[in-house]
Every structure is written in C-alpha cells, then in structure tokens.
Amino acid sequence: MSCNHCGTKFNFFHKEIGCLNCKLSFCHKCLKQKIKIPSKSDQEVPVCRTCFSNLSSNVNMAVNIPPPDAYLKRLEDLENPARPPITIYKTDKKMETLRSGLSLADQQLLDRLEKLKDKDKPPPSEDEIRKRLNSLKGGNEYVEGPSNTQVFAPDTRTDQEKADSILEMFIKERDIELAHNPEEGIEARLATLRGQGVRPNEGAYISNLHDSGSDDDEVDKITKKIMDEVALDNKCSNRLPKESMSDPEYMDDKFNSSPELGWCALCNEDAKYHCLDCEDLYCNSCNVQVHKMWGDTDHRITEYKQQ
C-alpha cells in the first residue's frame, strides 16, 4: 500500500498512519498538521491537509433546504384539525317508485328486503353462527367452554382379556389377508384332497399360531436329540483302531508309508535315522550335530529303513 497523498509506499522507514477524521492512510510527512476534533477528542490530533483546511475554515457549508409542502400541511392539520366528514345516505329511486301504490303488507316486505340488502350491517359473530347451526340441527343451546361428557366408555377389561382380544383381532386380519391370496387357497385345496386335514386359508404361519405346544415338550425334544448325537459319537469312536501315537514302531511304519523320499532334511544325503519327536530324516553327521547343538538329546531316534 502507499500514501493517499504523495504516493510513497509504506515500509520500515515510512510507516502507515491514519487520519482520524477521514480514516485514510498517509505517511508521517503528510500528517504534520494538528487540530482539535470535537467529535473525537479534546486534544489536537494529526490530520491530513484536506481535513485540516476543512476544519480550520469558518465557512458555514450548511445549506438551508426548505421543508416540503406535505410536511407543512401535516403541521397545519395538527394545529387545526378538520371536522369529520359528513356522510350522506342516498335513497334508492327504484324502491321509492315500488313503494308508491303498495299495500301495508307489501311495504313491510319491501322494508325487510332493504334490510337484507343493507351492506353496512356487520357480519355475524362466531357465537351467533354456532347458535344458528345448533338450532338448525335441533340440539340444545350452545354452551361455551369444554364439555364434561365422556365420548368413550371406560375399559374395564383385565390385561389378559385385552391381550386375547388383540390376538384374536390379529388372527382375523391375517385370515382376511390370506383369503385374498390365490396361492394359499390352492395349497389348502390340495391338502384337503390328499386328506391331510388342513383348513382352507390356513398356511404354515397360521398353523404354527394355532399350535399350543408347551415349552417342556420342546426342551425334551432338544435333549433327546443331543443324547442321540452323543451316543452315535461313542459308537463311532469304539470302532476306530486303538493305536498309540507314542509307539515307535507305529510312528516308523506311518512315516515309511508316506510318499516322501528318504533324504536328509539338511544336506540331502541318504537318510539313516528318523527322529520321532522332530518327525524328520537325518544322516549320521547331521543327526549328531543338530541334536547336540539344540540340546535335544532326549529325542527318540530310530533307524530309517529305506523302501
């Protein structure tokens, strides 16, 4: 940014200073004049040259603008208020011509007609409209405020009776829904033809809903099923051969029956020994070094018979 008067850019040596009157940015060279600003402070403050010339001049710049005519008329109306306007009601010439030569009964009917056509009559209130509606319905007089009459009778049923009624209503609604389902109807007809004794409009959901099986029967069925599975497992385990996994001959025969080649697991030389604990084949030198280095001197080692 730069000074608004001389155009010098602000930097470390030329700092930005603001004029308190016009709020513009100037350098310290352009704000040498000082003057009092009554609206800001009582002391002299630095201002720009333009503000200094405007504040120091004693020329009255105010221009006398005459007030508008509408403002003057309002003042006159406040000082001398006018009288309220006089309303003149004009008679209808058609009604006067009709009234002449009529009988007394016809004139009364004409007066009632004029009252009905009267536009200045205020509209009826809400209470009057309610009273008129109540009289047309043939009821009692309208009473303001909330009524204490109970619309619904209190429910004196027990909780069990309420639950039974809700369940019965749900079953009836479900039967109505199934009655409009053609697939359920066809299944019910097929069941009756086969002699299964199934009611029409009764699917699997409704049959389960009507079923009254107890929880004890379900628990007995589950327990019996578990016992049958345990007995079946015991029979299968008794038929298996009882061979000990710790028998060296059994492990050696099992290993020799594998399709693996008889090579040492470390140097690929011909295997001479079989470690039952490591389950690997070793030659003479590797067998001694491996078990001595790992400290596994208690491993069971058998002689490997190459097939």
Automatic annotation (TrEMBL):
A GO biological process held by the record: abscission
Domain of life: Eukaryota
GO cellular component, one term: cleavage furrow
FYVE-type domain ranges (all copies): 1-56
Recorded GO MF terms: phosphatidylinositol-3-phosphate binding; zinc ion binding
InterPro entries: Znf_FYVE (IPR000306), Znf_FYVE-rel (IPR017455), Znf_FYVE_PHD (IPR011011), Znf_RING/FYVE/PHD (IPR013083)
Keyword set, alphabetical order: Metal-binding, Zinc, Zinc-finger
One Pfam family, short name: ANCHR-like_BBOX
Matches recorded under PANTHER family: ABSCISSION/NOCUT CHECKPOINT REGULATOR, ABSCISSION_NOCUT CHECKPOINT REGULATOR
Protein name as catalogued: FYVE-type domain-containing protein
Lineage, broadest ranks: Eukaryota, Metazoa, Ecdysozoa, Arthropoda, Hexapoda
